[in-house]
Amino acid sequence: MNWSHFIAQNYAQILELTIEHLWMVGISTLLAALIGIPLGILIAHVPILNKPVLTTANVIQTIPSLALFGFLLPVPGLGDRAERLAILALTLYALLPLIRNTYTGIRGVDSAVLEAGRGMGMTNGQLLFQVELPLALSVILSGVRVAVVISVGLATIAAAIGAGGLGELIFRGLAMVNNLLILAGAIPAAFLALLADFSLGWLERRLRPR
After folding, report:
1. Would 73 disulfide with which of 8, 16, 19, 79, CB 3.0-4.6 Å?
2. Would you say 154 and 82 are in contact if contact means Cβ atoms under 8 Å apart?
3. Distance of alpha carbon 118 from alpha carbon 121, whole angstroms
4. CB 9 within 8 A of CB 96
């Protein structure tokens, strides 16, 4: 049996696992954005918090994924729900690019533009939402792109703790020494990562200030 015949016969299962994969990636990226972007804005305006926040995010990023799953297992309410544990781990991994790019984007806004805004009587809140964030949007979106690609890849490892997703096919294929199963999980996961990178990269270029 070749790969295309295998996909045709197991289409429903692969589609279901792909939806599970996208669900984990989407929820974790959304949570990371809700935490990471405000943190990036905060450290851009309060420099004393820059080092501890970025150092913490860097430390989390360097922890191997399976080790992080192991650290999170004893957390009450998480260890018995593999999907929650996986989403939390993916959220933690996605924080660094979001925090760092938001910080870089805000700090990269030309000071002359900010001074012009203040000269027009704009408040700090108005400067943030009408000047800084619009000008930093493409840089922030670049961080979102990196976070999504990281999450798509790491979500495959979440299958090791029973969280589902395309990694389930990969791990099952490795256990059974079945290349068709491995490819059935690996190829859609790689396609999702490439699609996310291309589409968000295109949007990032469109939003880049000229």
Report:
1. 79
2. no
3. 5
4. no
